[in-house]
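Pipeline run #58 for the internal structure catalog. This entry was flagged by the ingest filter as a single-chain record with no existing model, so it goes straight to prediction. Upstream metadata was stripped on purpose; only the residue string is passed forward. Reviewer on rotation: M.T. Logging verbosity set to normal.
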Amino acid sequence: MGRNRFRKATGFARWLLCYFGFDAVTWPDGNIYLLEKAFSSRWLRRHELAHLMQWRRHPWSFWFRIYWQYATAGHDQAPLEIEADAYASAAIGYGTAWRTFAGKVG
C-alpha cells in the first residue's frame, strides 16, 4: 500500500460508480477510484483500503466472496462490507457510527 492508489474516477469507473450508486470502488489492479465528491473522505478511503487488505488475505477468493455476499445478504449487510466499515471507523476514531456519521459521502 506504499504508493498512492487513490484515483479520481473517470470513464468506465465513473460510469460504474454512478450506475450502482456508489462513491468508490476498489479495482482488481489495486487502485481505488473515487467520485470527485468523495475524493477527500478519509473514512471512505480507509474503507476501500480495508478491501485491499481483505483481497490480500484471500487473493483467490475475494471477488467471489464479496459478490456472493452482495447477492445473498445485500451490500450493507455483507460481512466483508461490515468488516471494512469497522476498520474505517476505528482507523479514524468514529467508533461504531460508521455509515450514519460518514454517510456514503460526508
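catalog note: The chain is about 55% helix and 10% strand.
catalog note: Residues 42-57 form the longest helix (16 residues).
status: ready for reviewer M.T.
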